[in-house]
Amino acid sequence: MSFSKEVKEELSRHIPSGRHCCIAETAAIISLCGHVKISSQDRFSVKIHTENIAVARKYFTLLKKTFNIVAEITIRKNAYLKKGRTYTITVNNHEDALKVLTTCKLLEDGDIVENMSISDNTVIMNSCCKRSFVRGAFIASGSISTPEKFYHFEIVCNSYDKAVQLSQLIKSFDIESKIVERKKYFVVYIKDGAGIVDILNVMEAHVALMNLENVRILKEMRNSVNRKVNCETANLNKTVAAAVKQTMDIKYIQETVGLSKLPEALRQLAEIRLENPDVSLKELGGMLEPPVGKSGVNHRLRKISEIAKKLQEDNSLA
Ligand SMILES: [Zn+2]
User: Fold this and answer.
1) Cα 79 to averaged position of ligand 1 atoms, centre (Å)
2) Domain 3-204 falls in which CATH fold?
3) Which of 104, 198, 219, 251 is buried deepest, with most CB atoms within 10 A?
């Protein structure tokens, strides 16, 4: 099961205890993915489509518990995606539909509130109801990426205004979200791990939150190990590159004028380096007679390098 499905599954089993919260969550689901149909006889019906059975179950339960309405469910096999199914939940009865829409403050004086917008909606005055609304919005049209891959949380809105309102609602919990236009939709999204942990907390998805935190801890550990390894590898590469360069310089001197032309201290080091291409400067120093410290070895190697460079310059002029 995808992480998104896991979270929705968990949230679908979370039925708020307060009626106010149930109303807020129902309002969110209808606002984000509901359709209101008005017949030629001015009869209302409310419909939602979803491919997620957990969402269907949740909405059905909310209608039953909050409004005592038994909605109609139809299941359609998706013709394109062989295993996909679409669940349609409809409140067909005109009086029931009016009751739901009016209580959710999506209908005022017989008119649908501007695009079923959520601004100034009194159903989300309390903090508990705000949480419920975010939860409903996520269930209705949200998704969250598998945290092992990357951090991404989003809720798709069908208008810019709705996206802004949702983003402000999320902001009331001190969580920063952004809005991006995608095709004809506006997507409210959160990209940072800490923000996603916070929003899961707002929605009271406690199991998902714990799972995400575990992944975050593992990821952080892995990153710090990787950083260390990368750092060590970089240092090692530098050492190896330096040793290769030293050997090349010494061999050049050997092939042109011969190592015997070098001052005694340098000649001895050059010969030992040729025999021990892999050892560290400290070890090289220990092999010298008398032994020399790391900085002493470094100094002599620089001299050798300068001599090689001088020889190369002279040869290129000749
Ligand atoms: Zn509430």
Assistant:
1) 40
2) Endonuclease I-creI (3.10.28)
3) 104
Q: In this predicted model, what pLDDT tens digit does every residue of 54-78 receive, in sequence order? A: 889 999 999 999 999 999 999 988 7
Name the 3-class secondary structure at 310: helix
**Ligand 1 midpoint to CA 264 (Å):** 88
Strand intervals (E) in the chain: 34-38, 44-50, 72-77, 85-91, 107-108, 111-112, 142-144, 153-157, 178-182, 185-190
Q: What is the dihedral of CA 100, 106, 107, 112, to 10 degrees?
A: -130
**With 90 as the cut, is the pLDDT of residue 131 above it?**
yes
Which residues on neighbouring strands pair with residue 88, listed in sequence order? 49, 74
Quick one: tokens of 252?
């050049």
CA of 129 relative to ligand 1 center, distance in Å: 4
Q: In the prediction, which pLDDT does 117 show?
A: 67
**Taking 80 as the threshold, does the pLDDT of residue 111 lie above it?**
no
d(CA 16, CA 24): 10
Measured distance CA(284)–CA(287) in Å, rounded: 5
Instruction: Return the biggest CA–CA distance within the chain.
Output: 110
Residue 256 has which token pair? 């042109």
Name, in order, each residue with C-beta under 8 angstroms of 296's C-beta and a sequence gap of 6 or more: 285
Between the CA of 189 and the centroid of ligand 1 the distance, in Å, is 24
